[in-house]
Amino acid sequence: MVSNCTLHNMPTAVAKALEDVAVKKALAQDEAAQWKHKYELELLRNSQLERSIASRALDSSRQDNLSVTSVISEGDIDATEFRSSPQNTQTRSNGYLQYKETIQNSKVLSYSPDLFNNLYLDTQLDSKISEKASFTLTLDPVDERRKEQNHDLVSFDDGDINAEVRSNKQIALVWNSSPASVFILLKPNAAAVQQLCEEMVWWLREQNVTKIYVEPRVKAELMEENADFEFIQTCETEKQLVTINKSVDLVITLGGDGTMLWAASLFKGPMPPLVAFSMGSLGFMTKFQSSMYRESLQAIMKGPAYITLRHRLHCQIIRHDRETDDNTSSESAEYLVLNEVSIDRGMSSALSNLECFCDGHFVTIVQGDGLIISSPSGSTAYSLAAGGSVVHPQVPGILFTPICPHSLSFRPLILPDYVTLRVQLPLNCRGQAWASFDGKGRQQLWGGDALIVRMSEWPVPAVCEKESSGDFLRSVRESLHWNRRNIQLADERPSPSH
Ligand SMILES: NC(=O)c1ccc[n+]([C@@H]2O[C@H](COP(=O)([O-])OP(=O)(O)OC[C@H]3O[C@@H](n4cnc5c(N)ncnc54)[C@H](O)[C@@H]3O)[C@@H](O)[C@H]2O)c1
Ligand SMILES: Nc1ncnc2c1ncn2[C@@H]1O[C@H](COP(=O)(O)OP(=O)(O)OP(=O)(O)O)[C@@H](O)[C@H]1O
């Protein structure tokens, strides 16, 4: 696609030919990205299959104890089957995900501007069985009626198209064995947070939590306070961080939404269930009260606990082939975001010019300050500030929200979760553009560079304080003060006498 400013002086036939070439190029790149994604999924499935076979061979007795009939994902919370893609409808009637102990042998997506620059890192080939607690994710076990609704989308017996099974499910986590390993993440530079962490560590030890991990910075701070914290474990290397999903049963965050985003960013692939204690200012996604941590953790570790699968977006920057005289890498980089990826015009005073495609179909050219591509969880963050809709985190969609578009008719869109979006800078764009991932890791984009965004198969399984909708609506009302208005006075006329 060639920008309008270039086209308008050219003879129509030349302009049309150029536009056709650009569209074909974008389509070919889209197709390549989709094939790459399919290839990666295939690799992942094969490795899961291998792990499952090896796991069964190594520990058949343990397997016998797990009386389940169907397994979607082994070892990792994988939300591929919960997406509402037409291709996935066959598998959506499987009612649960099951966690099982697996061999530490998987490929994990890696990202971080500073820590992880490779697309994928092979984790250690460790043939030990992981010591993680086993759990099952089921449809609401309390509500028997839901089990009855667990049938195929289309029944061929009577030809009725039935839509009772939707991807919007209330999922419950049931532990098969007690969780014994937690990773605590703290908001930095907050004395109250560190104090709570110290208290929580001792309490968790009393509860037979044998392994407690923290970040290296936190371990150093705790050791400064008290040398008895020596037993606390930490992830010293990038590799340990990448593999930590395999040894942690529960992730606990003490901070605000930013700490939860930080925790999610450390897990470049599958992530254990996360409990977010509110010690920040807004706390939209951090629903647990820190003063009640004992009661809350006791209940969660006993189970069942409701969880919300907060879907993340997989983002990939594809660089246009060019001679780089700057330090920008020409390799493509990949990111996982819980809230959103935004593209803005940075310091440039020129209007941004972003050509957008959805599954290869031209959508629009965003001319304004930029664009936000957000997950449903991110709908209440930057996207909300730019006028996007507030979306329940379990609605399977991708939000497409412009930032200050210079147009009277540009409205935000919500697209289905199975699409792949592509945002490209025209080769002759006037200004610069910057992509940010959950507000961090800013990357400069140049003419011809593209950003490809799709729903990731690795959600953040966030433990609910009550249940998914209750928590979300409470946050909308109490954190965002949604629709706060003085109640209209009642009519004071005397009621008609009978
Ligand atoms: N104009 C804006 O509103 C704006 C601008 C830039 C970034 N942000 C948001 O800030 C996020 C990064 O958060 P941070 O804490 O690291 O930065 P931060 O410290 O700048 O805080 C951003 C604020 O957004 C809130 N927030 C974050 N995620 C939220 C969510 N999903 N729902 C509701 N509120 C949420 C946080 O509680 C915090 O009050 C980005 O992902 C982006 O969504 C918003
Ligand atoms: N463990 C961590 N390491 C490094 N940075 C972190 C860590 N936890 C949080 N941060 C960063 O610290 C900043 C503030 O954290 P957070 O948002 O949790 O606190 P807050 O702003 O007080 O709370 P709220 O988000 O509720 O307004 C965020 O930008 C976040 O990315």
From TrEMBL:
Catalysed reactions, semicolon-separated: NAD(+) + ATP = ADP + NADP(+) + H(+)
GO molecular function: ATP binding; NAD+ kinase activity
Keywords, comma-separated and alphabetical: ATP-binding, Kinase, NAD, NADP, Nucleotide-binding, Transferase
Top-tier EC class: transferase
EC number: 2.7.1.23
Signal peptide: none
Membrane-spanning ranges: none
GO biological process assignments: NAD+ metabolic process; NADP+ biosynthetic process
Family of the protein in this entry: Belongs to the NAD kinase family.
The protein's name: NAD(+) kinase
Source organism of this protein record: Physcomitrium patens
